[in-house]
């Protein structure tokens, strides 16, 4: 039996590289996937691929930074059988490659403000329905980690640490209602680096070089692990991070 058969899963940022990989993995495991994001054309393209592979996917134009839009979309999904999984994978707008001493305040705080705002809104919207049904999983992406010495990542790590604090609190508050909260940590996914990124090779070599396996996590790896963690086979996992960094991040 498929891991997520009969489950409804919302993937915010479902048109992006990570979001589409996760959505495809969810659908492959039997979930009905609800792709949400601002670019409907990109979402529709992902949904078409999922359907062509025999999966179920619906799309909706949703600004995951807009409180009303997030709440209304969650209500619509919940009305179709509840919300079992919520995973926010929208872009945080982080600026990388600039040393902190040369970075503007706006660029530094952008990923922090965006990550905290959007994950709060989407997690809250899903949790309100999950607590009623006394089941569900809220997934986070990123996780706390050490700074990347070879490259300046701006406020990105600050954003990840803030999300970990949010995840810990949510896990504590939602646990008694049967709702889980888990973070996936990768240490970086070279496949997501833009092809025209000037320092792409430097960053890719840095990511691979810090692993114990000599390679970094792939998009397929992220999707497969996310599907497992979202499933009932991982029902004892909450208030924790899942390390899929190939040994780059040592707990």
What's this model, at a glance?
The chain contains 7 helices and 7 strands. It has one domain: Rossmann fold (3-Layer(aba) Sandwich). With 251 residues, it is an alpha/beta fold.
Tell me what you see in this structure.
Keywords: Oxidoreductase. Belongs to the short-chain dehydrogenases/reductases (SDR) family. The structure is a single chain. The protein is of the alpha/beta class. It has a single domain (8-242), classed as 3-Layer(aba) Sandwich (Rossmann fold), CATH 3.40.50. Helices cover 43% and strands 15% of the residues. It has helices spanning 17-28, 40-52, 67-78, 105-133, 156-174, 200-209, 219-230; strands spanning 8-12, 32-37, 56-61, 85-88, 136-141, 179-185, 240-243. It has a seven-stranded parallel beta sheet with strand order 3-2-1-4-5-6-7, sandwiched between helices. Helix 1 crosses helix 7 (219-230), helix 3 (67-78) packs parallel to helix 4 (105-133) and helix 4 packs parallel to helix 5. The longest helix has 29 residues, at 105-133.
